[in-house]
Design a protein that fits this description.
The structure is a homodimer of 158-residue chains. Chain A is globular. In chain A, a hairpin with a 3-residue loop joins β3 (60-72) and β4. Chain A has five helices and six strands. By secondary structure, chain A is of the alpha+beta class. The first copy, chain A, has one domain (5-117): 3-Layer(aba) Sandwich (Aminopeptidase).
Amino acid sequence: MNQPRLATKDDMPRVLELINELAVFEKEPDAVEVTLEMLESDGFGEHPKFTCFVVEVDNKVEGMALVYMRYSTWKGEALHLEDLIVSQSQRGKNIGTMLLDEVVKYGKSLGVKRISWEVLDWNEPAIKFYENKGAKVMRDWDVVQLNEKEIDNYLKEI
Amino acid sequence: MNQPRLATKDDMPRVLELINELAVFEKEPDAVEVTLEMLESDGFGEHPKFTCFVVEVDNKVEGMALVYMRYSTWKGEALHLEDLIVSQSQRGKNIGTMLLDEVVKYGKSLGVKRISWEVLDWNEPAIKFYENKGAKVMRDWDVVQLNEKEIDNYLKEI
């Protein structure tokens, strides 16, 4: 197993496979509208919209963490971990921890005052893992979303 | 009352007052580490880190909404509403709704497939308001954060 490294454009086909693998596991295979072309142009253009780390096992990418900057009105620039995925067949080998460590190191190198992510509130093993790492799980904050269709519906009503 | 408009650098002193007003109301006045200089340079440089809308009442900014782009591994670029603040003295005049409407229109104009924000799970009036607008309140997702000190502690342990 290799240490985490920055992803290159050439890793994006495999990264998209991991994204799809997780969506299938979560029984939402149709929810993935991201395409290889989007990942390649959004992540590797002049102004990248995200940064991606990957871990290889036997020369194959088996885990990835995707991050980008947010902006807190209290703390200024903050790093957000959008997704951390380890291939089903490679679980239990510490790859997730290696990737989270890498993300925290990256945040430190950027000098951010906050690193954030989201967790399912029934995922007690994950919550316990994060709390052991010293993170605050803010159970009283919920995520609100409008999807594409809901955006259109919203606009029709105003 | 004026319609929402894009904030300029000159609005930032008043925007920072609103940020502080809310932090005092939430009994966390010391949590605000953002400075006027940060807001001015981060929001109005060559690559702005956020976009801000404001509403004026009698030529004074009394409400603001601060947004930026995120990146969904399912949907690609997504718009996030970080903060929507209306001055205490100006509540109940529909300013919050005007700002949320403006944010959704802005998201539509950008062609994003998702607009997101966060809400306190005990804030039932807000949740009801968002749900009436067609938004999904994802009660099973929690926010996780590492602050500056927790980042250092995390790194000490690895």
